[in-house]
């Protein structure tokens, strides 16, 4: 089996991103361990620059564009990838052109604005997103960086698990959220190399469970009408991410919005951190009774993938 | 000049606390650097266990009590030291008896409860605090750990700056908040040894500015009726902390509650972290025009001392 990204790509991304991305801490809480029935080590990408792991993939991709970045960078994103591309382009000294749905959380829009990118809003549909992006690309000549179906983006996202596994020693399992699958693809490849026996799980909102259905069916099933508070996990898997996930995952744990809200509250109360709904899915999954019953997992590493929540959207 | 705590005490505390306290990350933000006009490196003790640096001092003191801890530990505190002692005692396997003012933030009371300590509430006056604590000590035979005027507590608190200075290299200045002065005393001693030329500053709410007045007068002036949202910084300096601060500080920057609220919002918006009012005083101080005008400070390290805010008290 041959995938779009190998471990060497992640290793070289980790070197390339040294001093660019923030080496986020790994947090733990005795209370959360008690509730989960096992040790839970949380990689805090909510504390990453722009408040999400997305800055890893975007920075890696912008760096690797070389001269191809000179006319600027364009992407479409509901938020965190948008902020990430905006900041990566600014660091590189080239313009960023971002297509965002008009439903994107304010805090993410403000983040993009603060990094001086040009925003074009569109209706929150796949079609509007594509046609709007095509128009922007034609007008500007910018290079497009897909939010997840891009090997350099996937390799960059894999550096979060790379750091986690380097830092904490033996893990019996690793889990990351699934939207388009970029983070979990990178996580899978890093984990399979650095912890060959660790089980790899995805966490997915039950209101956008295309990856769980794809895994069950053995073929890529697109997401049609997602319904969840996890605004970062609404998209379908991609052509590059699907085969990686299919070949690595032990399973996908789906979580309800109520379970996500409970996980957000626990993270606030016990760790003083605001984690966005998408970012709290893994903790929600780890706290489910059916996950608790799984044997052979004494220590699990999970990724808190982002922390951008509109203050008025806080569930506490 | 001889002080209650020397650098060797902090060094041995750092060894003792390895694996006990969380080695918190040092965060930075290009936006905040821009506003401050210099590089600002923030030691995130808001992410420490119990959500504040206090766990360092409490753990060091409980460890060093040896057999003296067997009948339990007692303290009085409006919140973070209470939670810290409760968790340190629980880890040690001895009971904790906490005297708290009935005005303490709910989130801090809940923290103490979750660590299974016995709470005795009292009126929010110095007198009630003392008589209630004496009664608890008599009833239980527990060992008392003062929130700041205890050499083992001061040495423990100094490990935050010890880690910061180890990690970030050269700093031109270091700043910590002042309540009773335990954190800033430990910070001063660690800094004078590890960065002999760095200026040492305190940040203090203007509504509880006893330390600034003491420094100006050259003698300890007690705090009488504090009026500030910084609920962790209401107390007077102590007999051990005052001489340490007097002999080390370059100056104290006082900040208004509005300046603190602005700093809290910036930390939420740019770093996704909820920092409590007391914990945001240093950033508020660094952003003041009069501090900005000081020369010779290209890089400053500050301590975000805690993150426990009642959700309904968030200023955003």
Description:
Two copies of one chain form a homodimer. Chain A is built from 13 helices and ten strands. With 316 residues, chain A is an alpha/beta fold. Chain A folds into two domains: 7-52 and 150-313, Rossmann fold, CATH 3.40.50.1100; 54-144, 3-Layer(aba) Sandwich (Rossmann fold), CATH 3.40.50. In chain A, strands 1-2-10-7-8-9 form a six-stranded mixed beta sheet, sandwiched between helices. Chain A has a four-stranded parallel beta sheet with strand order 5-4-3-6, sandwiched between helices. In chain A, helix 4 links the parallel strand 3 (73-76) and strand 4 (96-101). The radius of gyration of chain A is 18 Å and the shape is globular. The model of chain A has no long low-confidence stretch (mean pLDDT 94). The interface between A and B is medium-sized, with 28 and 27 residues.
List keywords for this structure.
globular; homodimer; alpha/beta; four-stranded parallel beta sheet; Rossmann fold; 316 residues; six-stranded mixed beta sheet
Layout of secondary structure:
Two copies of one chain form a homodimer.
Chain A: H1 7-16, E1 26-27, H2 30-36, E2 39-44, H3 54-65, E3 73-76, H4 80-92, E4 96-101, H5 106-114, E5 118-122, H6 126-140, E6 143-144, H7 151-168, E7 173-177, H8 182-194, E8 199-205, H9 210-217, H10 241-248, E9 251-255, H11 257-271, H12 281-286, H13 289-292, E10 299-304
């Amino acid at each position: 089996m041959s995938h779009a990204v190998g471990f060497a790509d992640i290793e070289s991304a980790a070197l390339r991103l040294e001093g660019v991305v923030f080496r986020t801490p790994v947090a733990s809480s005795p209370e959360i361990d008690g509730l989960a029935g096992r040790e839970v080590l949380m990689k805090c990408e909510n504390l990453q620059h722009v408040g999400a792991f997305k800055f890893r993939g975007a920075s890696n991709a912008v760096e690797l564009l070389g001269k191809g970045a000179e006319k600027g960078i364009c992407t479409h994103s509901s938020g965190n990838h948008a902020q990430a591309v905006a900041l990566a382009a600014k660091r590189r000294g080239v313009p960023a052109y971002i297509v965002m749905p008009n439903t994107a959380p304010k805090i993410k829009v403000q983040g993009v604005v603060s990094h001086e990118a040009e925003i074009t809003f569109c209706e929150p549909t796949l079609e509007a997103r594509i046609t709007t992006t095509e128009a922007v690309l034609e007008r500007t000549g910018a290079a497009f960086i897909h939010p997840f179906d891009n090997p350099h983006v996937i390799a960059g996202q894999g550096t979060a698990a790379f750091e986690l596994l380097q830092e904490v020693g033996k893990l019996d399992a690793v889990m990351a959220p699934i939207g388009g699958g970029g983070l979990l693809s990178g996580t899978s490849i890093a984990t399979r190399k650095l912890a060959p026996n660790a089980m790899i799980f995805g966490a997915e909102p039950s209101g956008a469970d295309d990856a769980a259905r794809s895994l069950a069916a053995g073929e890529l099933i697109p997401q049609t009408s997602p319904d969840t508070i996890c605004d970062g996990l609404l998209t379908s898997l991609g052509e590059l991410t699907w085969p990686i996930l299919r070949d690595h995952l032990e399973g996908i744990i789906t979580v309800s919005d109520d379970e996500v809200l409970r996980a957000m509250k626990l993270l606030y109360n016990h760790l003083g951190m605001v984690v966005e709904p998408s970012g709290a899915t893994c903790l929600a999954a780890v706290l489910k009774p059916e996950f608790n019953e799984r044997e052979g997992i004494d220590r699990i590493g999970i990724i808190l993938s982002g922390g951008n929540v509109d203050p008025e959207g806080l569930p506490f």
